[in-house]
Write a structure and sequence with these properties.
Elements (H helix, E strand, L loop, with lengths): L3 H15 L7 E7 L12 E5 L5 E3 L2 E3 L5 H9 L5 E17 L2 E16 L12
């Protein structure tokens, strides 16, 4: 039989294994980058990760997790697609079927609006 302390450690370790992993949140500028295509998946939108400076093309965005007030901002204006706002969120990959073929595509899952984007953060956007 295990000691109470060892039993507690085993239970704690098993509990950690059961917790789903989530991508770390960061701040991003999402926008239409001006690219147009004739076949999906299309790289028409991109994201600038403010923590790393990396630009990821072909990104889609999921705003369903935004608070109501933040969602109203993205629904009623072009602020999101013009790269005028910085959103907080995480990037995840989702499988999507397009014309019968499966693709593993990146999605920015937005959780809040942080602030207005600076001009220097919008350089990857088509309409500054």
């Amino acid at each position: 039989m295990f000691s109470p302390r060892l039993t507690s450690l085993i239970v704690a370790a098993c509990s950690l294994c059961a917790i789903p992993s989530f991508a770390a949140e960061s701040s991003y500028v999402y926008c239409d980058n001006g690219l147009r295509c004739f076949k999906a998946p299309c790289p028409s939108n991109s994201v600038l990760d403010l923590a790393t400076g990396t630009i990821i093309k072909g990104m889609s965005i999921d705003t369903s997790g935004l608070p109501r007030a933040d969602k109203a901002i993205t629904d009623l204006s072009d602020a999101l697609y013009a790269g005028k706002i910085v959103v907080r969120g995480s990037i995840e990959h989702r499988t999507q079927t397009i014309t019968g073929k499966e693709y593993d595509l990146p999605w920015l899952v937005a959780t809040s609006i942080v602030r207005t984007a600076k001009d220097s953060e919008r350089k990857h956007c088509s309409s500054r």
